[in-house]
């Protein structure tokens, strides 16, 4: 924190730096200097000796120490006062007006002025974010003024000191109805402003061809800069939605040579995704090819993974074969990655069988490990929900014999539920028989699962999904344990579900 860190630094230099927490003599000498006392006067007034306290009860001693601590804290606070160029200002020189003046000066420094703090000058050039279109800057200074550190990611008054008169009027005059023609010559500036960008987006949805062309002509030279701007990127996206075919084609041409850098940028990745939805296959092929050799980098990037997903969803499978090829031997690693697991699921949804076959083969070899992973379990669930029958059967076969242990697992229990829900009747019966059977100690897995924080949900799912004869069999096995289940938080869930079913039947 801007001010607290300086208090801490000063305290460490002035107090802790000399070991004064442990050196009572040092503290005594410092306090004597402040009060203008000699050692005898000081010891007489405070009842202190360098070796400790003299003739005092424990509670008096504690009270005195507390008072001394409060006094030292107040002295430290007052002595801190205000730092300017490394010099200390005394409390007497620190009137409320001077404090407000200093506060205002510091605010001015954060808005682009000079701010001298502890001998350090912070000019606007050192505080402002880079305006390079592809540097990762969230808002280039060339659009709507310099957005400085310390502001929110989506400032409501970004660049307040550099707005044109027209933009100021637009923001402040709520009564005048503006049209796109009214801001001609200022389109780029408005695109980089929160309110101006929203205005242009709304107008483009119903604009005439002539109005669209006027806006397009102004934003085209600054398109790469707008693509990585917190507000400008939405104007570019709107052109991919509502622009003419020629405008979309020209904008897509601007992306060429910059696809990778845009794909891993917070706002640029959104533009790439929107472009892939709007352009023809030939241009898709040109843009996607720029990612070859960098697929894994994008997949593991918080922004880039969305671009890879969009490529899989929108681009014809034969044009993204290089994406699938880059996953060979890496499927387990990707399936257990927070972003990679999403990409694997998109491949299973949109790619052809020749492409998904090797991916599934690697997944199914690691089924038991994946179902217990916080991300991998979603991939196996996806196979059970959307996969082919043979793949679902393979998953159930892999889990057979471990239903109890996996049902008690936080992540794997979700997969067991999906096996019950999406498996065929014979597979469902196999799971039920394993649950109703007995372990080596004679206790049925059902009894354990009903009381478990995760497994109880598997039992509830089974009760909901199975046919009437299977449900009657399970409930008949549960009823003898109703009284003991009432003692357990999770057992009560089972009782509630059975009572709910009984109420529906009656």
Largest sheet: 2 strands, antiparallel
The shape is elongated
Q: Could you tell me the mean pLDDT?
A: 78
Strand order of the largest sheet: 1-2
Radius of gyration based on Cα positions: 35 Å
How would you characterize this protein structure?
With 506 residues, this protein is mainly alpha-helical. 63% of the residues lie in helices and 3% in strands. The strands form 3 sheets. The protein has a two-stranded antiparallel sheet. Strands 3-4 form a two-stranded antiparallel sheet. A two-stranded antiparallel ribbon has the order 5-6. A hairpin with a 2-residue loop joins strand 5 and strand 6. Helix 28 runs parallel beside helix 31 (455-465). The longest helix has 23 residues, at 58-80. Mean pLDDT is 78; it is low at 16-24, 39-64 and 75-160.
Features of this protein?
34 helices; 6 strands; two-stranded antiparallel sheet; elongated; two-stranded antiparallel ribbon; about 65% helix; about 5% strand; about 500 residues; mainly alpha
Task: Indicate the topology.
Elements: H1 4-14, H2 24-35, H3 39-46, E1 48-49, E2 52-53, H4 58-80, E3 83-84, E4 87-88, H5 96-110, E5 115-117, E6 120-122, H6 124-127, H7 141-144, H8 165-172, H9 187-191, H10 194-204, H11 209-219, H12 223-227, H13 232-242, H14 245-255, H15 259-263, H16 268-278, H17 281-289, H18 295-299, H19 304-314, H20 321-325, H21 331-335, H22 340-350, H23 353-365, H24 367-371, H25 376-386, H26 389-399, H27 403-407, H28 412-422, H29 425-436, H30 445-451, H31 455-465, H32 468-478, H33 482-485, H34 489-505
Antiparallel strand pairs: 1-2, 3-4, 5-6
Helix pairs in contact: 10-13, 13-16, 16-19, 19-22, 22-25, 25-26, 25-28, 28-31, 30-31, 31-34
